[in-house]
Amino acid sequence: MGQATKMGFSLLGIADPGLFERYPRIRKPAESEKYWPHPHEIWPECRSVVVLGLHCREEVFDALVRMDNLWGSFYYEILSHREYRLRDWFREQGCEARITDDVPVKRAAVLAGLGHVGRNSLVAHPQHGSNLRFGLLLTDAELAFDEPNDPLEPAPCGDCRQCEDVCPGAAISNYRVDFSRCIIPAAGGWLSDDEDKIREARRIQQRGGVVEVECNLCQKTCPLNEAE
């Protein structure tokens, strides 16, 4: 964790790549007939899955709702830059490391002991709640694995259903997201070529010349984020 902290990461967890094979595969939301691969299917020599977490400020999540594609050019750009630096550090130590977005990142975060999946389908960490962005490195370095959490065991949401109640698409139910109703994939055009449907899903509004195209309500309303 020391090197990751120096590079600006908020969290680091190490998952056993073999653990991924013990749980049901996760279907890709954009491709209903395809599933996320296991780490060893991507790279057989992988011995450790390094999960990197970056804490995100609440004010920026609020800004995401008002600035088209800010999410793609702010925290993810920072995360990507630091991932490459850490990858290069591993290589300087004589180990191979590969950045990947082909492993289900929320599953990896849970198996690295960084939290549980909440009702809103986001990973909730005990300190930071779900105000996090995650990145992944696969490495052939034999690292000490962190105590994994069970990806089939939900976060301690109890009877709280604030994320379900606030979702404008009624997409959240029983710790799952119906991507045919969620605004975000519909806004990205993942699910339909019907321009009218996409336009409605995005709920574009004009306020002072700023187009609103994002939705973070299920995250913003989550009481677990109040612990940070």
Description:
It is a single chain. The chain is of the alpha+beta class and about 230 residues long. It has ten helices and twelve strands. The strands form five sheets. The chain has a four-stranded antiparallel beta sheet, with helices on both faces. Strands 2-3 form a two-stranded antiparallel ribbon. Strands 6-7 form a two-stranded antiparallel ribbon. The longest helix has 18 residues, at about 75-90. The model is unreliable at about 65-70 and about 185-215 (pLDDT under 50).
Estimate the global geometry from the Cα principal axes. Answer: globular
Rounded to the nearest angstrom, the radius of gyration is 18 Å
Structure annotation, total helices = 10
Q: What composes the largest sheet?
A: 4 strands, antiparallel
Number of domains: 2
Strand arrangement in the largest pleated sheet: 1-4-8-5
Percent helix: 25-40%
Low-confidence sequence ranges? 65-72, 186-213
The fraction of residues in strands falls at 15-25%
Chain-averaged pLDDT: 80
Give the secondary structure arrangement, pairings included.
Layout: H1 2-6, E1 11-15, E2 27-28, E3 31-35, H2 39-42, E4 48-55, H3 58-64, H4 70-73, H5 75-92, E5 97-99, H6 105-111, E6 116-117, E7 123-124, E8 132-139, H7 162-166, E9 172-173, E10 176-177, H8 183-187, H9 195-202, E11 206-207, E12 210-211, H10 217-220
Antiparallel strand pairs: 1-4, 2-3, 4-8, 5-8, 6-7, 9-10, 11-12
Please describe the structure with a list of short key phrases separated by commas or semicolons.
228 residues; alpha+beta; 4-stranded antiparallel sheet; two-stranded antiparallel sheet; 10 helices; 29% helix
